[in-house]
């Protein structure tokens, strides 16, 4: 049922959004006369690699500098790219990956191999299902770029303060996923673009209803400053990345 749900929603969404996506791609093309699409290598279900399609929001060959985490003040982001990232428009083309069966509408966000190679044994559970365009952590850390802004080593900071909770939220989804949860998360993802605070409040209630631990619910509300914390299955904070 999940695969049928994904396919139907993705197909309808792509048809409806086709004119808008075409306009965006034309604007990106005119910006620097290069492909409007960025094909990113990601790790999917069972550790299998796939090529994820995104609208390009950065300069050409931006991934050549070896930095995988993108801060909001990253100089590689184009002027149009800042608008695209602000409203998560670069994610829309991933609907094609949903149609191809690489990912689902909802599921743990796919990571680059450099990050999945760091997974603990417990975090390997994130690869037991198809990754997705959105999930709990996509809403909680929709401001990931702002969190990493001004950091000397955004990849390390990501692994120290975002990954621990992103992974826990992903694992919680793996254990509690169903079509009702998926539908709610899609709705809350859209709401978060316009009113993140309200979306987080509804998300916290959803986590509570599903029996999440208090610490996870508190992180979800994002009322406290994020501090380094060990990833699931580890006793120490990540020191290298």
* End-to-end separation: 39 Å
Largest sheet, in brief, is: 2 strands, antiparallel
In total, the number of strands is: 4
What is the count of distinct domains? 1
Based on CA inertia axes, which overall geometry fits?
globular
The main sheet orders its strands as 1-2
Radius of gyration: 17 Å
Reading the helices and strands in chain order gives HEEHHEHEHHHHHH
GO molecular function: phosphotransferase activity, for other substituted phosphate groups
InterPro entries: Bact_transf
Family: Belongs to the bacterial sugar transferase family.
Protein name: Sugar transferase involved in lipopolysaccharide synthesis
What do you see in this structure?
This protein has 241 residues and is mainly α. It has one domain. The protein has helices spanning 2-32, 79-86, 95-100, 113-116, 136-140, 144-148, 154-176, 179-194, 196-209, 214-221, and strands at residues 37-43, 49-55, 104-106, 132-134. The protein has a two-stranded antiparallel sheet. A hairpin with a 5-residue loop joins strand 1 and strand 2. Helix 8 (179-194) runs antiparallel to helix 9 and helix 9 packs antiparallel against helix 10. The longest helix has 31 residues, at 2-32. Keywords: Membrane, Transferase, Transmembrane, Transmembrane helix. It comes from Oleiphilus messinensis. GO terms for molecular function: phosphotransferase activity, for other substituted phosphate groups. The chain crosses the membrane at residues 7-30. Residues 2-194 form the Bacterial sugar transferase domain.
């Amino acid at each position: 049922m999940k695969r049928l749900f994904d396919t139907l929603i993705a197909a309808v969404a792509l048809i409806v959004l086709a004119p808008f996506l075409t306009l965006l791609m034309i604007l990106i093309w005119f910006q620097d006369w290069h492909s409007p699409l960025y094909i990113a290598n990601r790790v999917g279900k069972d550790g299998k690699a796939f090529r994820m399609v995104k609208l390009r929001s950065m300069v050409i060959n931006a991934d050549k500098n070896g930095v995988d985490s993108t801060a909001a003040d990253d100089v590689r982001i184009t002027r149009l790219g800042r608008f695209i990232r602000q409203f998560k428009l670069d994610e829309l083309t991933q609907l094609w990956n949903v149609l191809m069966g690489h990912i689902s509408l909802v599921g743990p966000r796919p990571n680059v191999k450099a990050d999945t190679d760091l997974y603990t044994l417990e975090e390997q559970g994130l690869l037991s299902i198809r990754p997705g365009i959105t999930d709990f952590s996509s809403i909680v850390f929709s401001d990931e770029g702002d969190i990493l802004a001004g950091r000397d080593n955004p990849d390390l900071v990501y692994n120290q303060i975002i990954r621990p909770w992103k992974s826990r939220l992903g694992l919680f989804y793996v254990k509690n996923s169903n079509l009702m949860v998926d539908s709610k998360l899609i709705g809350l993802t859209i709401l978060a673009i316009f009113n993140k605070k309200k979306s987080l409040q509804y998300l916290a209630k959803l986590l509570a209803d599903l029996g999440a631990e208090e610490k996870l619910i508190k992180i979800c509300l994002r009322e406290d400053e994020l501090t380094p914390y060990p990833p699931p299955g580890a006793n120490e904070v990540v020191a290298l990345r």
